[in-house]
Design a protein that fits this description.
The protein is an alpha/beta fold and 343 residues long. Helices cover 48% and strands 10% of the residues. Strands 3-2-1-4-5 form a five-stranded parallel β-sheet, sandwiched between helices. Strands 6-7-8 form a three-stranded mixed β-sheet, with helices on one face. Helix 7 crosses helix 11.
Length: 343
């Protein structure tokens, strides 16, 4: 019997708790059910709708709207609610969990939860987690067992996390197709401020800039396509979630934003002085670095698999295209007429 088979058998016999069955919580629960078919899953969710669906789908074996003694049977508990609620449920679980239980979370900011863990003397029972995957969509129905596949999964141990438990957790997320990355929680928060949190703010502010600068005829909105839509797609994310993220990773975001504003000021000065070499350097260095980033891993927003076909405007053209795709087993999620040939 191989080592991987032994691990799967071990994980199959475990009990997992999920606090929150939104997009991320339901996706990980569904992934566990697929990877570790015989495991036991206990779910807490305030909304009855998600609990009913989880039971109907056989994703959960037990679903409740109260933090009861069933969570004392769990080997792992995933906190999958907004940041401030995760801290509340962490404190509630302290008196319920068994000594060997590992509590983890899926939040995109780690410092706050780690501080609470230290305050509650739960460092041996906690390992932070952040699956670098997601979607603009929310809710149990939008969760998929494949959400974390090929996505980085940040793991942030505490100072008292047992090495064998960290390795076990690493294997656990590898089993659902994720790519674990172990790092300090402070380094995690500094990094995501640059590669996730600030870009969301920039995208949202850029959209608002266009909205406020557009003419009464909304010419900018009509022309918006290609590059503009690509770099602002993340502006469609949940405003509630991003308010919480910005309020919990504020220091790191401010630091990165100040660096970004300084760099924009430099470019502004180069434009005013008509220094073409500076502009060339901006695009050249960014192009080289951007091309060095792997395209094979998922980000915090689900990739959009789209393409544009240049066809003659004549009767039956779209029908012909759909027949070609259908013959190759490709399902069309959405189709529309693109009035911009930028791509």
């Amino acid at each position: 019997m191989t080592y991987d088979t032994l691990l799967t058998e071990k994980f199959n016999k475990m009990t997992y708790g999920f606090v929150g069955l939104g997009l991320i919580g339901s996706s990980i629960a569904k992934a566990f059910r697929r990877a570790y078919k015989d495991c036991r899953i206990i779910a807490f969710n305030r909304s009855e709708h998600a609990r009913v669906l989880a039971l109907q789908d056989k994703v959960a074996d037990y679903a409740t709207d109260s933090m009861d003694e069933h969570f004392g049977e769990c080997d792992y508990i995933f906190l999958c609610t907004p940041v401030e609620y995760n801290e509340y449920y962490l404190r509630k679980l302290k008196s319920i969990i068994k000594p060997s239980c590992i509590i983890t979370d899926v939040g995109s900011v780690k410092t706050n939860i780690h501080k609470v863990v230290i305050e509650e003397a739960l460092e041996e029972n906690f390992i932070g987690g952040h699956p670098m995957a997601g979607s603009e969509k929310t809710g149990y129905e939008k969760g998929t067992a494949s959400l974390c596949e090929n996505a980085l999964y940040a793991i942030t141990p505490t100072a008292l996390s047992l090495p064998e438990k960290v390795e076990e957790y690493k294997s656990l997320v590898e089993g659902i197709g994720a790519i674990p990355l172990i790092l300090d929680y402070r380094e995690h928060d500094y990094s995501v401020a640059a590669i996730s949190h600030l870009p969301h703010i920039i995208a949202a502010q850029l959209v608002n800039l266009v909205k406020e600068s557009d003419s009464g005829r909304q010419i900018m909105k009509q022309m918006a396509a290609g590059g503009f839509k690509d770099i602002t797609r993340i502006a469609s994310s949940s405003p509630e979630m991003w308010e919480q993220i910005c309020m919990t990773n504020t220091g790191n975001i401010i630091d990165m934003m100040e660096h970004y504003i300084a760099s924009l000021t430099q470019i502004l000065d180069s434009l005013k002085q008509h220094r073409g070499d500076d502009i060339y350097e901006l695009f050249d260095t960014s192009r080289i670095y951007r091309n060095s980033i792997s395209e094979s891993r998922k980000g915090s927003v689900t990739p959009e698999y789209s393409f544009t076909v240049d066809i003659v405007d004549e009767p039956g053209a779209i029908s012909t295209l759909s027949c070609i795709l259908s013959a190759r087993g490709i399902s069309i999620g959405n189709i529309g007429i693109n009035h911009n040939r930028e791509q």
